[in-house]
C-alpha cells in the first residue's frame, strides 16, 4: 500500500504538476539525468532570455528558433531510432569475443575473422561470443519488449542497464556472405578450436528461432563425452533450407546445424572428435576457474543495432527499445512528429509574446515559465496516465492536450491584449445593464491569465478533458445553443453538424439581409421576407430530421453513385453467409425520410410564404401564447404525470393505465390506447403548428424594430429546430419568458425573439443545475447513510464544508456543462449471453422512437439515461440524440447474475412501496390508492424514478434444463444415441448428394468391410451394451445384422419418402453407408469422451464436443473426408437434432417411437428450429434474423460448478420496468470512476465506489460504464431508431409522404368516387365493368348470380390492433349492387381494391 501511494504521488501528482517529469528509481541514471536536464533547459531558456534580453523581435526569434531546432533534433533522432528497432538490422561485430575484462579494462585478444574460415581437425566452424565465464551468455542477460518480439532481434544490456555505445564503420561490402567450409555431405563444419566450455561442460550459442522467437542453446555434457543438442523443429529446418548464412544470421545457422550434426552422431556414427572435445572442455574449464574472480566484473557481450547515415556509412548503437521508450514518448509517424514540433513552436511563440507584452510581473514570470516548460516537456515525455485519460496504458492524445490548451488560452489572451490597446471601445446596454467593453475584456483576460497560471493544478485534478473531447464538446454546445442542433457522436459528427448549420445560416442570412433592405410598413410584408420565412421553416424542418452522424447518409449516396462498388462489398458479405440486415434497414429509413422531406419542405415553404405575406401574425400573439401554454401543459405535464407508476409521487397506481398493466405475461404488442393517440396528436400540433406560428409571428413583429439580421436568422433557426426536435420543455421556457419580460422586467426586454432565444439557453443550464443539486442532495443526505458505526456520527458534521465546495462546483460545472467528476466520486464482449442484449438493441432500434413519441417512457431529452429491468435482463439505455422523428441511443447490458451489490439495487427497483403503511415511527396506514407518508418521502429522495411498469419489447425468453439430470440413467443415454443415429440416417437420405455418395467408387471401396454380415465392430471404448441399442452381447460388439434389426425400418421409411426411388433392402449400398456412418458417429463420440462413454461426465463432455462440431476422426474412418458434407451436412446436424428429439421424449413418450411421427417432427424442426452451438456464427445470424425458436447446449463453469445446460430460446414479448435515472448522477459517477481507476490506480475489487447505494443505483451505473472503468456484458454501437419503423405510430399518421404515395392516394380517391357514380347511374352493370376493365363476371361460368359474393375472412394479425386496421376495401359489382368487405376474394371474380374512408392500404 505504501509503495503504491509513493508511486501515485511520484507518477501521478508530481508528474501532473511538472508536465511529465519525475525521478523514476527503476530507470537508469542516463534516463533520469536526461529528463532532469531537458526540463531544466525548457524552464530556464525562456526565463533567462526574458531577463537578459530586451522584449524585442530578436529575442522572440532566438527563443522560437532554439526551441524549434531542439525539438526537430530530438524528434528526428527518436523517430530514426524507432525505425531502426522496427527494421531489426543487427550488426554482428567482426570478433564476438570483444569483451572488457577487469577493473582496468584489460581486453582478451580478439579472434581473427580469418580463423572462422579455417577448418580445424574436428571439421567444424563456430562463431560465438568468447568469454572466460562458464556461462558466456545466459537468457537472463537479455531483455525483450513487445515490439521486439514482433521483429525478433537479439538485444543485450549491460549489468547496470546504463551503458550505451556508438561505433562508426565503413563497410561497402558488409552484406557479402562469408566463405564457409562445407563437408562432403553439404553441412557446415564447426571447428572445435573455437568451442568454449565452462566448468559445467556447457556450450552456449545465442540465436533466435524464426518460429518461436526463443533462444537456442547448445549444451555439451562433458561427463558423458557427448553433446546434447537443442531440439529443432522441422519448420525451423525447412525455413532455413536454401538460405545463405551471413553475419546477421550466422549464429542461428550454427545452432540449427549443430543440432543436425549432433543428431547424426547420436544415430550410430559418433564423431571421432568427441573425446578431443571433452579434453578441450576440461582445459577450458581449468582456464575459466583460474579467472573466476575476474568474471564477476565483466559486462555482457555487446550486440549493436545498425543505424545507416549515408551510403556505406553506418553507426553501431548499443541501446534497446524499452530504454528508449522510458526516455521519450514514441511518435508513430511523421505527421505526429510535425504536429509535436509545431505545437512546441506555437507554445514558445505565444508564451514569449505574452512575456514581451508585460502581462506577467515578479514571481509570476517564473510561474509562467514553469507552465511553458510543462507544456513543452509533455510533448517529449507526457503524463501517463493523465487525470483526464479514460483508458489504461499510453494515451497518445494526452501528449498534445496540455500544449493545445496553452495555445488556446494564450491565443485568446493575446487577442484580448490587442483589443484592449484600442481607445474607441464602445459602451453598450443589454437588458438594461450597461456594459463597458474595455472593463469586460479586461475581466475576461484576467480570468484567462489566472487559469493559465493554474495549469498544473487543473491538469492534476483532471478539470480539462482530452483535447479531442474538448473540441467535440465545444462544437456540440455551439451547435445546440446557437443553431438548434441535437448532439454530436464524435469529432467527425461535430464538424459535420457545425458545417451544415453554418451552410444553412449563410443561405438564410442572404435572404434576410436582402429582405430588410426593402421598404416596410405594417400593412405590407415584402415577398423576399416571406421567402426567407418559408426557406427558414423548410431548412429547419429538414435539419431537425437528419442524424448528426453522416455515416448512413454517405452509405446511401455511395450506393446510388457507385453501385458497382457496393455490390462487390455485398457479395463479399454474402460469401461469409452472415449478412447483417440492419445497415440496409437504416439506409431505407434515411431514403424514406429524404423523399418525405422533399415533399413536406416544399409544402411547408409554400404555406409559410402564403401565410407570412398576410398580416395575420400581427394580431395573434396572445392567442398563440395561450394555446402553446395550454397544449404544452396538457401534453408534457398532465398526461405524463397521470401515466407514471406513482403520479406526483403520491398516488400508488397510474391513473391512465395501459391495456397490459394488469396482465401477467402479455403475448401481443402493446395495445394503442386512446390517450396515446391524444398525446401524439397534441405533440404534432404543438411541433408543427403552434411553435412555428409563434416564431414566425415574432420574426414578423421584431423585424419592424430594426432587429439585427444575423441575430434574427440565428435565433429563428435555433428556436424552430429545437421545437421540431423535442418541444418537451419549450412551453415552460415560453411561459417564463412571457411572464418575466412582460411583468417582472418589462423595461429590460429587447425583442421577443431575442428574449426567447436567451431564455432557451438559460433554461437549459437551469435544468442541468437542478439535476446536479438533486444528485448532490440525494447522495449526501444523512438518512441515506448506513449508520453502521459511531464513526458515521462523528464524520457527518465534517461533511458540511465538503458540501459547500460541492455547491460551488455545481454552479461552475453547470456553466460549462461538465460532470461532477473530480471531487464527488470516491472514485462488442465475448460473453455468450451478450447476444440477448444485441437482439434487444435491434428491437429498440425498431420501436424506441415511436414508443417515446407515444409517451410510453414519459418526458425525455438528450442525455437522459434509463434502465430496463426484467427477470434476468437489466439494460442501461443512454439517449444521445433526439431529432425530429429519430432517436440515437446506446444500450449497455449488465450481467445476468450480477454481484451482491447489483442484486440489492435490482431488488430496490422491483420492490413495491404500495403496501408501506408507516408514517414516521408509527404505522397508521394510508388512504386508498394513496402512498403512505414514509413511502412518499422516500420516493422523493431517490436519483431515479419508475416511469413504466409494463413496457413490452420483443425479445427471447430463456428456459434451461440440466443435461446431467436428463442423461443420468443409462437408458436415457441409449435413447439419445438411438436418436443420434436416426437423425444421421434422416439427413443422409434427405441429402441431395445421396446418389453421388452411394455410387462414389472411393467410398464403396473403403466400405467393403461394412458390407460383410460377419463383420463385427468390437471397440469396448466405443460400443457398450449400456448405450447401444444394437449391441450384441454374445459377440461383444455391433454387427450389420444387429444394426438392421433396429434401424432398417427407419431407413426404409425415410427412403420411401423420396421422390426418386432408391434401393433400401438389407444388402443395398444405402444400408451400408448408413451403417458406416453410424459406426463413425459413435466412434467420434467415444473419442471425444476420451473413451470413457460409460461415465456421465465424460459422455456429456464428448457429446458437447460433437455438438460444437469438433470431430476427431479415427484412421479407419478417414473415408469420410472424401466429401466433407458427410460430416457437415449429415453427422453434425444429426448430433444436434438428437438433443431436441431427446427432449421431446419426456413430453410424448409413445409418439416418438412411430416412424411417421418421428419423421414429421424432424422435418418440422429442420425448418422452424435453429439448433447449433452459441459460438457458431449461425447462432448469431439466427438471433438477429428474429427466428422464433432456438436450441443449444452450453457448458457452464462458474464458481466451482461444472454443468451442461440445454438452453431453449423462445421469441416473445418481454415485460420491462422503465426506470429514469438522473443523468447528472450517471455523468458524475462515471467521471469519478475514471479518475479513481485510471489516474489514482485503485485496484481494490471491493472499493467503496462500487458498493450498492439504493438511492443512486451506484453499482449498476458504475458497472455499466465502458471498460476498463466498468464491466458491462455488452455495449452496443450508437444505434438510431426512426419513427417510420414503428407500425402503431405509422397507423396514426399514415407513414412518410412521397410523390408516389400522394399519387396513389389521389388515384384511389378519384377511382372510388367515379365507380360509385357509375354504379348508381342505372346503367346495366352486366355490360359495364365498374372496375375499369373487361367484365369477367358475365363470362365466368362459375360466377354466382343469385346471391352475394362470399369472401374469405383473412386471419387477423395477432401483433397489434393497429396492424388490423391495415385493410383494403374490395368493391364488387353485380347487377347494380356493390358490396364492400375486407379479405381475400377468389381470383375468378373481377374486383377493384380501393381505400376505405379513414383506412390506409398498401398494395402488395
Describe, in plain words, how this protein is organized in 3D:
This protein is an alpha+beta fold. It is about 50% helix and about 10% strand. It contains 45 helices and 25 strands. Strands 11, 12, 13, 14, 18, 19, 20, 21 and 22 form a 9-stranded mixed sheet that branches. A 4-stranded antiparallel sheet has the order 1-7-8-4, covered by helices on one side. The radius of gyration is 41 Å and the shape is globular. The two termini are about 70 Å apart. Pfam families: Pecanex_C.
Q: What features would you highlight for this structure?
A:
4-stranded antiparallel beta sheet, 10% strand, 1404 residues, globular, 9-stranded mixed beta sheet, alpha+beta, disordered C terminus
Shape: globular
- Estimate percent helicity: 40-55%
User: What is the assembly state of the chains in this entry?
Assistant: single chain
What average pLDDT do the residues reach? 76
Strand residue content: 5-15%
Discrete helix count:
45
Structural class: alpha+beta
Rg measurement, Å: 41 Å
Number of strands: 25
CA distance, first residue to last residue: 72 Å
| Uncertain segments | 95-244, 246-254, 259-298, 787-803, 821-827, 1316-1404
For the sheet with most strands, the description reads:
9 strands, mixed
Amino acid at each position: 500500500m505504501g509503495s503504491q501511494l509513493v508511486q501515485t504521488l511520484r507518477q501521478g501528482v508530481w508528474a501532473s504538476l511538472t508536465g511529465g517529469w519525475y525521478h523514476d528509481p527503476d530507470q537508469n541514471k542516463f534516463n533520469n539525468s536526461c529528463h532532469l536536464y531537458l526540463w531544466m533547459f525548457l524552464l530556464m531558456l525562456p526565463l533567462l532570455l526574458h531577463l537578459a534580453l530586451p522584449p524585442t523581435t530578436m529575442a522572440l526569434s532566438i527563443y522560437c528558433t532554439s526551441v524549434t531546432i531542439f525539438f526537430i533534433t530530438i524528434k528526428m533522432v527518436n523517430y530514426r531510432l524507432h525505425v531502426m528497432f522496427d527494421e531489426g538490422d543487427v550488426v554482428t561485430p567482426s570478433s564476438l569475443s570483444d569483451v572488457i575484462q577487469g577493473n582496468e579494462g584489460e581486453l582478451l585478444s580478439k579472434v581473427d575473422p580469418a580463423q572462422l574460415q579455417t577448418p580445424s581437425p574436428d571439421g567444424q566452424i563456430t562463431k560465438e561470443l568468447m568469454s572466460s565465464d562458464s556461462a558466456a551468455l545466459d537468457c537472463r542477460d537479455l531483455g525483450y519488449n513487445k515490439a521486439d518480439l514482433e521483429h525478433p532481434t537479439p538485444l543485450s544490456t549491460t549489468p547496470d542497464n546504463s551503458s550505451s555505445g556508438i561505433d562508426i564503420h565503413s563497410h561497402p561490402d558488409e552484406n557479402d556472405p562469408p566463405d564457409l567450409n562445407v563437408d562432403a555431405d553439404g553441412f557446415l563444419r564447426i571447428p572445435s578450436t573455437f568451442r568454449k566450455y565452462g566448468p559445467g561442460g556447457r556450450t552456449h550459442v545465442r540465436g533466435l528461432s524464426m518460429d518461436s522467437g526463443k533462444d537456442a542453446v547448445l549444451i555439451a555434457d562433458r561427463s558423458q563425452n557427448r553433446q546434447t543438442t537443442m531440439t529443432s523443429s522441422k519448420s525451423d529446418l525447412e525455413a532455413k533450407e536454401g538460405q545463405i548464412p551471413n553475419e546477421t544470421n550466422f549464429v542461428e545457422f550454427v545452432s540449427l546445424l549443430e543440432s543436425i550434426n549432433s543428431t547424426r552422431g547420436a544415430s550410430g556414427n559418433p564423431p571421432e572428435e568427441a573425446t578431443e572435445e571433452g579434453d578441450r572442455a576440461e582445459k577450458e574449464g581449468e582456464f575459466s576457474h583460474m579467472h573466476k574472480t575476474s568474471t564477476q566484473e565483466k559486462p555482457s557481450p555487446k550486440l549493436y543495432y545498425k543505424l545507416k547515415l549515408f551510403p556505406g556509412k553506418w553507426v553501431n548503437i548499443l541501446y534497446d527499445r524499452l530504454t528508449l521508450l522510458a526516455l521519450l514518448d514514441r511518435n508513430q509517424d511523421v505527421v505526429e512528429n510535425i504536429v509535436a514540433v509545431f505545437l512546441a513552436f506555437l507554445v514558445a511563440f505565444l508564451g514569449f509574446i505574452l512575456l514581451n507584452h508585460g502581462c506577467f510581473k515578479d514571481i509570476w514570470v517564473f510561474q509562467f515559465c514553469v507552465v511553458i516548460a510543462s507544456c513543452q516537456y509533455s510533448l517529449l515525455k507526457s503524463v501517463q496516465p493523465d487525470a483526464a485519460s479514460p483508458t489504461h496504458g499510453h494515451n497518445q492524445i494526452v501528449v498534445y492536450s496540455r500544449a493545445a490548451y496553452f495555445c488556446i488560452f494564450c491565443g485568446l489572451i493575446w487577442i484580448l491584449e490587442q483589443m484592449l490597446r484600442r481607445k474607441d471601445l464602445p459602451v453598450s446596454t443589454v437588458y438594461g445593464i450597461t456594459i463597458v467593453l474595455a472593463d469586460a475584456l479586461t475581466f475576461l483576460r484576467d480570468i484567462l491569465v489566472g487559469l493559465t497560471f493554474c495549469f498544473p493544478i487543473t491538469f492534476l485534478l483532471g478539470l480539462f478533458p482530452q483535447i479531442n473531447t474538448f473540441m467535440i464538446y465545444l462544437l456540440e454546445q455551439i451547435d445546440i445553443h446557437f443553431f438548434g442542433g441535437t448532439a454530436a457522436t464524435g469529432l467527425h459528427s461535430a464538424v459535420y453538424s457545425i458545417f451544415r448549420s453554418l451552410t444553412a445560416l449563410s443561405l438564410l442570412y442572404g435572404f434576410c439581409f436582402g429582405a430588410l433592405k426593402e421598404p416596410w410598413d405594417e400593412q405590407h410584408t415584402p415577398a423576399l421576407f416571406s421567402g426567407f420565412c418559408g426557406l427558414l421553416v423548410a431548412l429547419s424542418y429538414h435539419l431537425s430530421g437528419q442524424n448528426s452522424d453522416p455515416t448512413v447518409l454517405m452509405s446511401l449516396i455511395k450506393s446510388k453513385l457507385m453501385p458497382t462498388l457496393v455490390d462487390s462489398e455485398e457479395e463479399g458479405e454474402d460469401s461469409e453467409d452472415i449478412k447483417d440486415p440492419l445497415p440496409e434497414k437504416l439506409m431505407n429509413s434515411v431514403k424514406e425520410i429524404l423523399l418525405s422531406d422533399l415533399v413536406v419542405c416544399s409544402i411547408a415553404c409554400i404555406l409559410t410564404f402564403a401565410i407570412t405575406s398576410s398580416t395575420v401574425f400581427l394580431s395573434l400573439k396572445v392567442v398563440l401564447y395561450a394555446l402553446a401554454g395550454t397544449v404544452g401543459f396538457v401534453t408534457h405535464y398532465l398526461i405524463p404525470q397521470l401515466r407514471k407508476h406513482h403520479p406526483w409521487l403520491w398516488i400508488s397506481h397510474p391513473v391512465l393505465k395501459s391495456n397490459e398493466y394488469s396482465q401477467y405475461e402479455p403475448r401481443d404488442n402493446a395495445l394503442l390506447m386512446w390517450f396515446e393517440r391524444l398525446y401524439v396528436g397534441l405533440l404534432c400540433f404543438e411541433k408543427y403548428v403552434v411553435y412555428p406560428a409563434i416564431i414566425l409571428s415574432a420574426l414578423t413583429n421584431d423585424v419592424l424594430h430594426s432587429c439585427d439580421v444575423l441575430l434574427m436568422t440565428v435565433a429563428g433557426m435555433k428556436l424552430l429546430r429545437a421545437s421540431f426536435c423535442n418541444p418537451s420543455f419549450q412551453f415552460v421556457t415560453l411561459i417564463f419568458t412571457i411572464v418575466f419580460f412582460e411583468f417582472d422586467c418589462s423595461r429590460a426586454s429587447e425583442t421577443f425573439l431575442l428574449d426567447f432565444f436567451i431564455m432557451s439557453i438559460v433554461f437549459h443550464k437551469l435544468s442541468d443545475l437542478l439535476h446536479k443539486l438533486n444528485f448532490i442532495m440525494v447522495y449526501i443526505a444523512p438518512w441515506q447513510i448506513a449508520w453502521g458505526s459511531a464513526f458515521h456520527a462523528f464524520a457527518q458534521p465534517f461533511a458540511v464544508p465538503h458540501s459547500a465546495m460541492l455547491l460551488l462546483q455545481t454552479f461552475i460545472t453547470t456553466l460549462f456543462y461538465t460532470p461532477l467528476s473530480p471531487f464527488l466520486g470516491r472514485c462488442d464482449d465475448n460473453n455468450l449471453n451478450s447476444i440477448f442484449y444485441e437482439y434487444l438493441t435491434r428491437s429498440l432500434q425498431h420501436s424506441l422512437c415511436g414508443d417515446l413519441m407515444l409517451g410510453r417512457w414519459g418526458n425525455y431529452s438528450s442525455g437522459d439515461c434509463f434502465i430496463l429491468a426484467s427477470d434476468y435482463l437489466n439494460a442501461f439505455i443512454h439517449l444521445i440524440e433526439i431529432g425530429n422523428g429519430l432517436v440515437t441511443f446506446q444500450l449497455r447490458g449488465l450481467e445476468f447474475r450480477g454481484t451482491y451489490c447489483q442484486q440489492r439495487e435490482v431488488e430496490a427497483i422491483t420492490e413495491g412501496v404500495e403496501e408501506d403503511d408507516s408514517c414516521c415511527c408509527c404505522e397508521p396506514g394510508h388512504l386508498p390508492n394513496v402512498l403512505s407518508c414514509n413511502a412518499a418521502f422516500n420516493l422523493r429522495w431517490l436519483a431515479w424514478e419508475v416511469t413504466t411498469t409494463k413496457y413490452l419489447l420483443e425479445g427471447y425468453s430463456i428456459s434451461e434444463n440440466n443435461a446431467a439430470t436428463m442423461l443420468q440413467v443409462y437408458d436415457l443415454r441409449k435413447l439419445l444415441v438411438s436418436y443420434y443415429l436416426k437423425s444421421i440416417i434422416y439427413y443422409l437420405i434427405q441429402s441431395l448428394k445421396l446418389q453421388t455418395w452411394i455410387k462414389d467408387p472411393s467410398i464403396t471401396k473403403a466400405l467393403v468391410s461394412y458390407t460383410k454380415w460377419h463383420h463385427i465392430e468390437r471397440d469396448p471404448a466405443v460400443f457398450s451394451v449400456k448405450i447401444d441399442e444394437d449391441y450384441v452381447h454374445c459377440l461383444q460388439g455391433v454387427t450389420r445384422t444387429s444394426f438392421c434389426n433396429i434401424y432398417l425400418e427407419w431407413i426404409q421409411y425415410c427412403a420411401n419418402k423420396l421422390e426418386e426411388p432408391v434401393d433400401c433392402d438389407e444388402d443395398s449400398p444405402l444400408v451400408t453407408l448408413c451403417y458406416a456412418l453410424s459406426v463413425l458417429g459413435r466412434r467420434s463420440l467415444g473419442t471425444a469422451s476420451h473413451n470413457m462413454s460409460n461415465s456421465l461426465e465424460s459422455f456429456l463432455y464428448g457429446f458437447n464436443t460433437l455438438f460444437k462440431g469438433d470431430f476427431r476422426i479415427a484412421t479407419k474412418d478417414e473415408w469420410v473426408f472424401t466429401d466433407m458434407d458427410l460430416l457437415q451436412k449429415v453427422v453434425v446436424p444429426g448430433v444436434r437434432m438428437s438433443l431436441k428429439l431427446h427432449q421431446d421424449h419426456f413430453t410424448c413418450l409413445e409418439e416418438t417411437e412411430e416412424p411417421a411421427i418421428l419423421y414429421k417432427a424432424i422435418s418440422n424442426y429442420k425448418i422452424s428450429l435453429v439448433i447449433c452451438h452459441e459460438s457458431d456464427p449461425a447462432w448469431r445470424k439466427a438471433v438477429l434474423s428474429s427466428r422464433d425458436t432456438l436450441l443449444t447446449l452450453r457448458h457452464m463453469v462458474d464458481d466451482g460448478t461444472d454443468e451442461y445446460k440445454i438452453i431453449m430460446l423462445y421469441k416473445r414479448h418481454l415485460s420491462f420496468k422503465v426506470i429514469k435515472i438522473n443523468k447528472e448522477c450517471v455523468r458524475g459517477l462515471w467521471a469519478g470512476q475514471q479518475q479513481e481507476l485510471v489516474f489514482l490506480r485503485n485496484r481494490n475489487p471491493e472499493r467503496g465506489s462500487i458498493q450498492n447505494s439504493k438511492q443512486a443505483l451506484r453499482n449498476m451505473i458504475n458497472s455499466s460504464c465502458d471498460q476498463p472503468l466498468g464491466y458491462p456484458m455488452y455495449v452496443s454501437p450508437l444505434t438510431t431508431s426512426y419513427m417510420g419503423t414503428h407500425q402503431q405510430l405509422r397507423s396514426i399518421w399514415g407513414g412518410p409522404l412521397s410523390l408516389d404515395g400522394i399519387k396513389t392516394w389521389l388515384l384511389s380517391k378519384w377511382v372510388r368516387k367515379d365507380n360509385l357514380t357509375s354504379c348508381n347511374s342505372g346503367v346495366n352493370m352486366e355490360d359495364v365493368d365498374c372496375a375499369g376493365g373487361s367484365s369477367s363476371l358475365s363470362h365466368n361460368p362459375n360466377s354466382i348470380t343469385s346471391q352475394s359474393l362470399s369472401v374469405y375472412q383473412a386471419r387477423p394479425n395477432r401483433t397489434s390492433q393497429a396492424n388490423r386496421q391495415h385493410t383494403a376495401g374490395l368493391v364488387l359489382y353485380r347487377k347494380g349492387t356493390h358490396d364492400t368487405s375486407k379479405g381475400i376474394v377468389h381470383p375468378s371474380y373481377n374486383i377493384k381494391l380501393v381505400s376505405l374512408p379513414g383506412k390506409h392500404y398498401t398494395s402488395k
